[in-house]
């Protein structure tokens, strides 16, 4: 609330107090509630629960290209799952129109790493855990505010017990890692956390 609004409300309250001497309690209460409503209407608080920081008067669309899998080791569903999760997240959490090309914001990239690495050696000289790592190179272009554009590599990983095979845990681990990747990309592009 600005100082002018405060001064105006204080003047009204002072004048109202002087005029309502001798007026029944109910009327005083009504005037007090009216003054309280004026104060509350003069203040406004805005919260965004979707986490985005987008000026929709300037930015209306985003183009999201498919993210091809160019890693040495390829898990076939990964490219499609990642691309669709990115589109779904921007669709759910923003009011931007999703386009294949020519958006105010442009998001593209590629999967550059899909690696399985043995971790920590157990007493029997075999690996106790295995780490699955996904690396994605992202190209983000903001055509409205070019200074916010970037090229960045995102890396996520999950470990699993070496007594399990990659085929046993791959789908579940990839789903979890895709969600983490998309959250990081979303935060860096439109949430600005």
> How many strands appear in the DSSP assignment?
5
Order of strands in the sheet with most strands:
2-1-3-4-5
Q: List the domain count as a whole number.
A: 2
Q: Which percent range describes the beta-strand content?
A: 25-35%
Q: Kindly name the structural category.
A: alpha/beta
Q: In which range does the helix fraction lie?
A: 40-55%
CATH topology-level name of the largest domain:
Double Stranded RNA Binding Domain
Q: How would you name the CATH homologous superfamily of the largest domain?
A: Lipoprotein like domain
Shape: elongated
Radius of gyration: 28 Å
Element pattern in H and E: HHEHEEEEH
Proper CATH architecture of the largest domain: 2-Layer Sandwich
Give the terminus-to-terminus CA distance. 27 Å
Continuous helix count: 4
As residue ranges, the low-confidence spans are 42-50
